[in-house]
Amino acid sequence: MPTTFHVDRNNLRTTHWVESAREPLADGAVRFHVDSFALTSNNVTYAAFGETMNYWDFFPTGDAATGRIPVWGFADVIESRCDGVAVGERFYGYWPISDESVLEPVNVKASGFIDGAHERRA
């Protein structure tokens, strides 16, 4: 059961962990296990400027009152329905503070892929 860190977008001191059911993957999607990331003062800046710089749009929660702060880190592919992205591959890039993340890669190359406007490197 994936666990994700949610932040109240209007009061960054109000946070909570959310457990959710693992959804089946859609065609073209990839499930990643986020295994390490850096949590720095920059992440506070991402939260503080979440609206202005669209950081809250990186990993929506489905609830307009909460957000997920992006962090730089590493994740491994644990399930894939996307051509060019194989189970076991490791990627570096922006991830949510979460143990799992589901993305829909586009522009897949040997060096990585783009999800939305965010590049991940193999």
Write the layout of secondary structure elements.
Layout: E1 3-8, E2 11-19, E3 30-38, H1 41-48, E4 66-67, E5 70-80, E6 90-96, E7 100-103, E8 106-109, E9 112-115, E10 118-121
Antiparallel strand pairs: 1-2, 1-4, 3-5, 3-7, 5-6, 8-9, 9-10
Brief write-up:
With 122 residues, the chain is mainly β. It is 7% helix and 49% strand.
Overall description:
The protein has 122 residues and is mainly β. The protein has one domain (3-121). The protein contains 1 helix and 10 strands. The strands form 3 sheets. The protein has a 4-stranded antiparallel β-sheet with strand order 6-5-3-7. 29% of the residues are buried.
Which descriptors apply to this entry?
single chain, 122 residues, mainly beta, four-stranded antiparallel beta sheet, 1 helix
Give the mean pLDDT.
93
In percent terms, what proportion of residues is strand? over 45%
The number of distinct structural domains comes to 1
Sheet having the most strands: 4 strands, antiparallel
**Rough shape?**
globular
Give me the secondary-structure category: mainly beta
So what's the oligomer here? single chain
Helix content, binned percent: under 10%
Low-confidence stretches: none
Report how far apart the termini are: 26 Å
The tally of helices reads: 1
- Number of separate strands: 10
The radius of gyration is 14 Å
**Spatial strand arrangement across the major sheet:** 6-5-3-7
Q: Order of helices and strands, N to C?
A: EEEHEEEEEEE
